[in-house]
Amino acid sequence: MQAKSRFPLGDADNVQYRMKCGIDILGAIQEAMGCGKNDISNYTDAVYGVYDYLSSLNDELRESIEACFEEERENADKEEAVA
Length: 83
Hints:
The structure is a single chain. By secondary structure, this protein is an all-alpha fold. The chain has two helices and no strands. The protein has one domain (8-82). Helix 1 (8-35) packs antiparallel against helix 2.
């Protein structure tokens, strides 16, 4: 687990951008598979690489979302303590 970030929404925004790039890579692979001259089986490792990358980004995004919720809970607890 990573250290607590001071900017969990910024982290989520960063992960979302990298996820968009991964999706763009997957689109390029799909296009190459459909239009390319190589055997489709040659793309197996590339597709797995994108799967693995997007899976790790999903985990990072979940951590960022959890950090945002934790920050909201902490702020709500502080407001309750003042009230």
